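Example 3.2
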Amino acid sequence: MDFTEASTQASNMLKLLNHDFETSYIFNKTKIRLLVSNQDSSSDLPLIFVIITVNSTEIMRMIELYSSNGSIRYNPYWPDETKDIVLPIIRDKNFSPMPFWNDLKLRIESLTLNVLTKSDVSSGSSGTTSAFGNIDDVYPMTVANWTKTQEKIGPNQQKRILRTYDKWHLEQLIAHRKTIRFTPTIEKAKTINFSDVFKK
């Protein structure tokens, strides 16, 4: 799904504020928070987290942005670990989550300073539950080359990558003999610029 305009607007707001920020709104009678950060100085893309409140529990997912053919895109997949809780909220009567993602995208594209509150990843994510449940190492951190003796990406690592990215990205990582290192610490999360990775 194309996220170019939303990514650009989020970056513009970060530059104007010179600080991480958050905003909230209601979708389908449910509170949604967006937490946006520029803590990843190695990328031009912002870090964006969506936080959905379900029965007083805040469930957070990082929106993993990536460059593709000159546009910024993301995978609208919701992790299996919490989809039974979240999908009833974000799906429409035709069982599609796309109206939720389209609404979120349009809200980011139309952000103005008067609806933003200064925040940071540590305090903004405090008390939230990961969309991946109790699984560790869910935030992408860096791309690494295979070791000299490595012949493939193991099944557990493939599963970890596919929780966040699609099959095409996994195939490209394998073709370039690279993998992704993940971290359980949100403060260490990074946006992976696949355009740069796959040039090498």
